[in-house]
Amino acid sequence: MLARLLRPAPDADGVSDSVLTLTAIILLLRPLDVWWLAPFVLAAACLSLALRSVRRAPLTWILVATLVAARVVVVWPLSDNHIYLLAYWCLAIGLALSSAASAATLSGSSRWLLGASFAMAVLWKAVLSPDYTDGRFFRVTLLTDDRFADAALVFGGLSRDQMAANRAYLEPLPEGAELLDPLPFVEPPRLRVFAAAATWGGLFVETLVAVFFLLPTPQRLELARHASLLAFCVATYALAPVAGFGWLLSTMGLAHCRPNQRWLRGAYLAVFVLILLYTEFPWTAVLADWTIR
């Protein structure tokens, strides 16, 4: 059994090397923040990039999945959602590499993991969280989360002084306390429109992804499955500062492509790089500096 897990899977009709490479890059770009786990995951990722025998060995990815799962347990319940998905994904790679039908196994795993993840997101937002569907989530987050501040300034029509005043207005006070002279709360129509677009636009695309990946899709509609996921990644991670999640989704989408779909595989690779550019180039901050006084 151990010899089988150590044996590199063949390239022919197997898991694409690009999927394994991108997954290793994700582990390097977003290392685990537990000091005694991170070195082992980083070492496995580096060796995977350098050595084919390590990259294509099922045991490599099963061990990485175990380490990522250990991180989830150690920092429970504070892990980001995509860390759970990363553990499942690495395990899926390990199991696929040990399978005779490795490509089909990983393609099926990526489809079900993507469909289930988006279905759970839709369930949480549309059914279990009334503060999401009534718009409160984005109306507050755009004002209070520094990661969205520049987007709120550019697309919401706020000035920097108004942003500061709104944050002061929303600052919680000791129980029973009231401000003697509170600053006014300013919510331009553009900000409400932006919050509504983020709320319902995101929910609509997530629903499409969940439906297309979970339901059997005729070959003529297969493109819609990939288009919905690509559209979600391009639009969402332009503003949402969760690059690790976007890289993981695009890598899983790549794994679901057939070998002859070269242009579609290229699209997922391009989106992976685009999300990296989103992360390294603060385009909303640049626009805010140019346009907001």
Outline the structure in words.
Helix content is 73%, strand content 0%. The protein is built from 16 helices and no strands.
Topology:
Elements (H helix, E strand, L loop, with lengths): L1 H5 L10 H13 L8 H13 L1 H4 L2 H17 L6 H17 L4 H27 L1 H4 L2 H9 L1 H11 L3 H11 L18 H26 L7 H15 L6 H13 L6 H19 L2 H9 L2
Helix pairs in contact: 2-3, 2-14, 3-5, 5-6, 6-7, 6-14, 7-12, 7-14, 9-10, 9-12, 10-16, 12-13, 13-14, 13-15, 14-15
The low-confidence parts are: none
What is the H-and-E element order? Answer: HHHHHHHHHHHHHHHH
Taking all residues together, what is the mean pLDDT? Answer: 90
Classification by helices and strands: mainly alpha
Shape: globular
Strand proportion = under 5%
Strand segment tally: 0
Question: Which terms summarize this structure?
Answer:
16 helices; mainly alpha; 293 residues; 73% helix; single chain
Question: In short, what is this structure?
Answer:
The protein is mostly helical and 293 residues long.
